[in-house]
Amino acid sequence: MKKLLIILQIAFLPFLVSCKKETPVLPSGPSQTITVDSASRAIATCNKWVIASYIKDGSDHTADFNMTGLYFCPDDFTVANDIMSQNGKWFFSKTADYLQLNLMFNSDIVVNPVWQELQDGWMVNNFEPNLMLLQSADRTRRITLKKLER
Length: 150
Hints:
Strand order of the largest sheet: 1-3-4-5-6-7-8-9
Radius of gyration: 21 Å
Structural class: alpha+beta
Number of domains: 1
Shape: globular
Order of helices and strands: HHEEEEEEEEE
Strand content: 35-45%
Number of helices: 2
């Protein structure tokens, strides 16, 4: 009987111990507990983020941002496509209710008028290492950003 128990334990050991590496998921939702510093460190990698979805007033405008990438580096961000680019500043701030991602261009003249839509303080509805769901304060615009791995 003792041998049978040992054999069963050994047989089920692979199911009890997993070698699968779990991707850490940062807290999300309207009452986020993520800090400004941890969010900033998570995206300030200069990797390319793409606009996977852009909804304005209930209409899908994602195609307006085809081939557009956002690059969040420690001191600035760049919005670029195959033809043009523009630099700006970004930072996270925290209100009593939510985390906010603030995007501001360095110039009053935005080289691509569609990019003007990005310049705002965005409520962060969901934050993961490779995904951000953002919403404008007036709740008329929603963006899904996805990080592309190098």
